[in-house]
Amino acid sequence: MSGGQAARIAGGGTVDTVDVGDVTTRFLLYGLLPGWFVPGLADWVMHRRTRIEDTAGTKESLLHSLMMAEVGAPIALTLRYEVNPLLLTVQLGAAAVHEATALWDVRTAVGSDREVRPVEQHIHSFLESLPFGGLVALMCLHADQVRSLLRGGRGDPDAWRLVPRRRPLSPGYLAGIVVAIGACVLLPYGEELVRCRRAARDRKRRARAHRAVLRRVKGS
Q: What is the pLDDT of residue 6?
């Protein structure tokens, strides 16, 4: 950014959207969002290494699914609809709920026999900070909608309804994101949940068999 552009911004002016808006949008679409899958996969690997199915089990795995839904829903809406006070409210609410669920998740893991290693804790720092980083960047891109939200959407007939994007994202990009979500989120975390459920059923089966043996011993 040149000194003249900085001066115009300081004076209340705007900078060329090609310099800031388009670059930030490309970063969000092709940098932050795809990069989000990396710590997500790394976290799944840590759960597997610490044998989540034999420790925190299904409860923690369900919390992981809940957090992915809390993040995935506003992302899906943002990819399809214009940013406005309604969408910002959904995004802010989802970020707050996601943070609360993340605390619940860590408390569940620590309260079980599963070892939450320092590497996993560091991975969590990325998973918690990326939603806020993306949201802040989006709010900077749509400062007018942030101001509209602070005014309660007064004077904007589209403030509280979903408005399709005026410049829709390409079908190829959306298809790529769907494939990436399936490969990097749904498949590994679905496998984790199935593994936890299977281990829980095996434990119940062994417990029933053990009780049956005890009853036979007592009855003999």
A: 45
